[in-house]
Amino acid sequence: MCLGVPGRIVSLPRNENPADLRMGTVDFDGVRRPVCLAYTPAAGVGDYVIVHVGFAISQVDEIEAAKTLEIIRAIPDALATELGPDAEAAG
């Protein structure tokens, strides 16, 4: 199963090379992962994004992120499947 999972951007490393893809660290309910932010150029620290296979594909508000995460939590093992084994321990 492949889902778009909402998460909050917690850091944006300084990009020394303008040719590099824009990256950031996104928190998914306590699990942090590096995410490509090239498709969400307006998103910054504290903003919520929908992430699919390591790419932020859209920006959402906190309420929409919470609603989506609630639905994903209702699917057995969905977060662990999408984010890896440490997602279950954090969530």
Walk me through the structure.
The longest helix is centred in the last third of the chain and has 12 residues, at 62-73. The chain has a single domain, classed as SH3 type barrels, CATH 2.30.30. Strands 3-2-1-4-5 form a five-stranded antiparallel sheet. It is 25% helix and 33% strand. The model has no long low-confidence stretch (mean pLDDT 87). Strand 2 and strand 3 (31-36) form a beta hairpin. It is built from three helices and five strands, in the order E-E-E-E-E-H-H-H. The chain is α+β, with helices and mostly antiparallel strands and 91 residues long.
Task: Provide the descriptors you would attach to this structure in a database record.
91 residues, alpha+beta, SH3 type barrels, five-stranded antiparallel β-sheet, globular
Topology summary:
Blueprint: E1 5-11, E2 23-28, E3 31-36, E4 48-52, E5 55-60, H1 62-73, H2 78-83, H3 86-90
Antiparallel strand pairs: 1-2, 1-4, 2-3, 4-5
Short description:
This protein is an alpha+beta fold and 91 residues long. The chain has a single domain, classed as SH3 type barrels. Helix content is 25%, strand content 33%.
